[in-house]
Amino acid sequence: MCLHLPQLPLEALPSAQPEQARVVLDSQQRVFRLDPHAQAAGIRCGMTLSSARGILPQLLSQPREEHQEREVLRSLAAWAMQFSSRISLSGSDALLLEIGGSLRLFGGLDALCQRIATGLDELGYSASPGIAPTPRGAEVLAHGDNPQPALDMAQLQQQIQTLPLAGLNWDARSLKRLDAIGISRIGQCLALPRDGFRRRYGAAHLKDLDRLTGRSADPRALYEPPPTFDRSLDVIGDMTDISYLLPGFEHLFSLLQAELQGRDRGVQRLHIEMRHRAHPPSRIDMGMQRANCDAAHWLNLLNEHLQRHPLVAPVRTISVRAQDFVEPARQQQDLWQNHNLEQRQLVLERLTARLGPAALYALQACATHVPECASQRAAAGQGQALVQTETPRPLWLLPSPQRIEFSHLQLCSRAERLESGWWDAHCQRDYYRARDRLNRQLWVYRDHQQPSHWYIHGFFA
């Protein structure tokens, strides 16, 4: 299967105003690609920018970014690895997938094509598929109009008969010479004598026809995704408004999501950087409770961070980096659709992004018997269950024990001896549950170093 992405030059560049007509310009300042809004207004490829603006004054134009197109194509190649383990890049705007071994897994050709089309649409990309028994045949069909799948060589031979030679992307000189003798279709070219064709038009073109029809092998280099993700995007104009930066981050997050989906992996930490013209870069480290590959969730967290920390200067370039790819946390399905744990983790992540990591924390048990040292703060959601004891403990302790007269207490339990280790400051106490004159339930202790001294250490509810 070949996936041709004809609108890649346009789709590789995010827009902060998706409802506005937009075009991508080539190096000659002519329209190279246009969106449906511009097409509906009467703008066509090849027009100069001034002519297009004469038709639609509010037209939004962007220069073509071939580097960005290559990055997007590589990310989509990694995404496609969920459908096939053999992926190749085809030119600057297409992918090749070996799908013969995947048809049974995905329930047949129609089901696989539907899965791929739906996934690309969710990521914001459109593709024209071509299916053939040879890689070159799939490329030619994908670049044609309304291609039908060619499931064997006979069907491929039949379909390419009427396709124009221009679909082979040969040089203009060779196409012009062939057109001069009335050859404009692939079928007509295949009917020419092979020896004469080689002498007149070169062995390279004959080799290309042989790869197309399966007479010659057509090995392709397989795509190997990089171990990390590091993508940047230049912002059109120096932006200070967060709302104009979010579409760019959404685009980068969607590329990361695509790569992670193809590898069946997730990330638990993202490194965000915004570069300014005359100011040090602004950096945000976004940590999450669980590894995931959800671009929409990342965008929400980033928005919370940016609302808490306004931009210090106009932004020129944004970048997203992720290093540690791990197996994502699976959302457990149950009979009652009870997903309280997942929802709690999402709430904690958003609160941490909004309030800062120091505003939320959990308690984590420590290996000591001294109550005031038996727990410590941990990141929200990362705490460990506290050790269960035979005798009850108050939920909250006083910041420091308070002296109390024994005559004010009524003991309600037997003594519980707690001692520290020899490596700590020596501590030996007897703890009791008690009531005071106000009938409050207290947790009190007697210090063995000062037997006559009693202290309140906590309150029971």
UniProtKB/TrEMBL annotation:
The keyword DNA damage applies. Gene3D superfamilies: 3.30.70.270, 3.40.1170.60. GO terms for biological process: DNA repair. Belongs to the DNA polymerase type-Y family. Residues 27-140 form the UmuC domain. The keyword DNA damage applies. Keywords: DNA damage. It comes from the Bacteria. InterPro entries: DNA/RNA_pol_sf (IPR043502), Rev_trsase/Diguanyl_cyclase (IPR043128), SulA_CellDiv_inhibitor (IPR050356), UmuC (IPR001126). This is UmuC domain-containing protein.
